[in-house]
């Protein structure tokens, strides 16, 4: 693992009126690692991702650093330009369009009159699908998205995220409301992202999924980081016990 | 096309077009069987070819609006309003056709843009807005128009215009990124916005396209009839919308087909012309329409396997 973080958050705070969604967050994301970001509903996972992906700004005193440089007026367009892509919970796919149309939506490969170069888009889509380990032989880039399973749809959204030399892919609850086999498929996509050299922030409140893919865990509770450490030899049971420990503390306080 | 997969003979994209085509052929066969003396002569077809292009050109723009998840009911009044602009300019300029056509197109597009702004920027329902604007535009036409305008020679080139416009709009709808954005706007606008597509602008341009096509229809209509009258758009409303749906563009948005629209328009115009030519009373046209629309929707649903909506 190289020692320069892609993204570094320094004392990041976010409040909505009187409510603190995030308090003094100090966090680093390094190249080539999968970080599982876990925590209960309302712990601040979504807010944290929104700040990293640029859809929401932090409160004034904190800093966001990309490649060790402080960035100002961080927006989603800037984040994308710096190689940070987000796959949203609702997958943001247009289900009646083809896979390749979805992968290139908003960034179509066109000639100078704006007509889509289908051949090129299809080739690229095929290679992306191979890269993230799309196993199903039934679907071609021509298939419309509404013919795919939930896991495969997530795969389309993920391949879109790695399209333009992205380095850090944020996955917001990618396995929510999925059958076991579908979720397993998505976890395989996530591992393949790492194999192809991407960093991943994997957000979930399913501890098994989070444990299965992680190199490192970050646990959030009520807007604070309560644990940040490598998976090492920690078993899924140990990890769940750890989660319970923090959750109990929460109930006591 | 390499879209075909094992066990799937018909590519998904062509199903609506094929469905519309089968329906058209069956209908034509029924007409021929019922009165071969009429439907095996050239006369009936040249009658169809006179009005078909107008319905088809109008309908193509409605495929865009429908695929974008909206509806436009104002075009029957944009036709006479832009037609009036054309006829009036011709009169004022001693038959300067180019200037008249430009002015007519500007009027048509302006009406469409106005609709588009009201709907996207003010968030009004397109159904109600365009219904209202339909009255407003025809009212304006009547206020501005003080009687008839003179005659001009006919130009029998509508079929050429129909195919040329179908080619251009078909390429844009199916192959241009604008067409993709239109379909995404009707399917999942949030997905488009998340990927940086300007959904509002896309929809406004769809309404402007309706205005453009309405002005073309207005101009061609004036050539066809060699005269202008302010009710020239009235006959277009229901047949054109029917052509969109019979042609295989679902009312639910997200997809559509320009090729299917041309076939749908042919079906609709054939019923109009055919019912009368077969010696039936004009009243039968409505019955024919009703049956054909419902039957074709059932056919599309079965054929495309869309059983849920």
List the uncertain runs of chain B.
1-7, 149-156
Instruction: Compute the CA-based radius of gyration of chain B.
Output: 20 Å
Share of residues in strands of chain B: under 5%
**Helix proportion of chain A:** 25-40%
Distance between the termini of chain B: 29 Å
Describe the model:
Chain A has 253 residues and is of the alpha/beta class. Chain A contains eight helices and ten strands. Chain A has helices at 45-53, 76-81, 99-103, 118-131, 150-161, 180-195, 207-213, 236-252; strands spanning 7-16, 19-29, 34-38, 63-66, 69-71, 84-87, 168-172, 199-204, 216-221, 224-230. In chain A, the strands form two sheets. A six-stranded mixed β-sheet of chain A has the order 6-7-8-3-9-10, sandwiched between helices. Chain A has a four-stranded antiparallel β-sheet with strand order 2-1-4-5, with helices on one face. In chain A, a hairpin with a 2-residue loop joins strand 4 and strand 5 (69-71). In chain A, helix 4 (118-131) packs across helix 5 (150-161) and helix 5 packs parallel to helix 6. The mean pLDDT of chain A is 87. Chain B has 309 residues and is mainly alpha-helical. In chain B, 73% of the residues lie in helices and 0% in strands. Chain B has helices at residues 15-34, 36-39, 42-67, 75-92, 97-120, 126-144, 158-175, 177-187, 189-194, 199-225, 237-246, 258-277, 283-304. Chain B starts with 14 loop residues before the first helix and ends in a 5-residue tail after the last helix. The chains are: A alpha/beta (253), B mainly alpha (309). Chains A and B meet through loops of A and helix 8 and helix 9 of B.
Brief summary:
Chain A is an alpha/beta fold and 253 residues long. Chain A is 34% helix and 24% strand. In chain A, helix 4 crosses helix 5 (150-161), helix 5 packs parallel to helix 6 and helix 7 packs across helix 8 (236-252).
Question: Notable features of this structure?
Answer:
heterodimer; A: 253 residues; alpha/beta; six-stranded mixed beta sheet; four-stranded antiparallel beta sheet; 8 helices; 10 strands; 34% helix; B: 309 residues; mainly alpha; 13 helices
């Amino acid at each position: 693992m190289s020692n320069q973080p892609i993204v570094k958050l320094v004392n990041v705070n976010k409040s909505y009126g009187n409510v603190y969604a995030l308090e003094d967050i100090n966090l680093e994301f390094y190249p080539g690692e999968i970080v599982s970001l876990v925590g209960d509903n309302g712990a601040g996972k979504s807010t944290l991702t929104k700040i990293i992906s640029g859809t929401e700004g932090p409160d004034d005193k904190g800093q966001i650093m990309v490649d060790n440089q402080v960035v100002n007026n961080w927006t989603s367009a800037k984040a994308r330009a710096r190689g940070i892509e987000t796959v949203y919970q609702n997958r943001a796919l247009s289900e009646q369009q083809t896979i390749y149309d979805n992968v290139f939506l908003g960034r179509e490969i066109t000639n100078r009159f704006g007509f889509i170069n289908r051949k090129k888009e299809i080739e690229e889509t095929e290679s992306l699908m191979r890269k993230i380990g799309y196993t199903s032989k039934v679907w071609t880039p021509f298939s419309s998205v509404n013919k795919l399973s939930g896991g495969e749809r997530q795969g389309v959204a993920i391949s879109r995220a790695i399209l333009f030399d992205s380095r850090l892919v944020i996955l917001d609850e990618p396995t929510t409301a999925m059958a076991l086999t579908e979720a397993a498929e998505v976890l395989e996509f996530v591992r393949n992202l790492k194999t192809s050299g991407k960093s991943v922030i994997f957000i979930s409140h399913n501890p098994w999924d989070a444990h299965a893919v992680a190199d490192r865990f970050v646990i959030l509770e009520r807007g604070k980081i309560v644990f940040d450490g490598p998976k090492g030899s920690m078993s899924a049971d140990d990890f769940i016990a750890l989660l319970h420990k923090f959750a109990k503390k929460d109930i006591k306080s | 096309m390499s879209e075909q997969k094992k066990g799937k003979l018909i590519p998904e994209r062509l199903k609506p077009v094929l469905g519309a085509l089968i329906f058209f052929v069956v209908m034509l066969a029924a007409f021929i069987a019922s009165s071969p003396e009429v439907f095996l002569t050239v006369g009936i077809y040249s009658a169809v070819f006179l009005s078909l292009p107008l319905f088809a050109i109008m309908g193509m723009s409605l495929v865009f609006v429908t695929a974008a998840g909206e509806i436009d009911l104002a075009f029957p009044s944009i036709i006479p309003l832009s037609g009036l602009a054309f006829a009036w300019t011709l009169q004022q300029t001693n038959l300067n056709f180019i200037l008249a056509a430009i002015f007519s197109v500007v009027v048509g597009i302006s009406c469409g843009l106005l609709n588009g702004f009201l709907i996207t920027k003010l968030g009004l329902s397109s159904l109600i807005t365009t219904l209202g604007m339909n009255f407003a535009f025809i009212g304006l036409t009547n206020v501005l128009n003080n009687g008839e305008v003179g005659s001009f020679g006919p130009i029998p080139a509508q079929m050429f215009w129909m195919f040329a416009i179908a080619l251009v709009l078909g390429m844009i709808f199916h192959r241009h990124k604008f067409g993709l954005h239109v379909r995404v706007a009707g399917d999942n606008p949030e997905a488009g916005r998340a990927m940086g597509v300007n959904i509002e602008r896309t929809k406004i341009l769809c309404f402007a396209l309706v205005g453009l096509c309405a002005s073309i229809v207005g101009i061609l209509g004036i050539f066809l009839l060699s005269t202008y009258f302010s009710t020239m758009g009235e006959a277009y409303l229901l047949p054109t919308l029917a052509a969109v749906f019979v042609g295989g563009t679902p009312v639910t948005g997200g997809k559509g087909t320009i090729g299917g629209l041309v076939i749908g328009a042919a079906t609709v115009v054939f019923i109009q012309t055919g019912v009368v030519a077969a010696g039936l009373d004009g009243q039968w046209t409505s019955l024919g329409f009703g049956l054909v629309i419902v039957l074709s929707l059932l056919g599309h649903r079965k054929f495309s396997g869309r059983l849920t909506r």
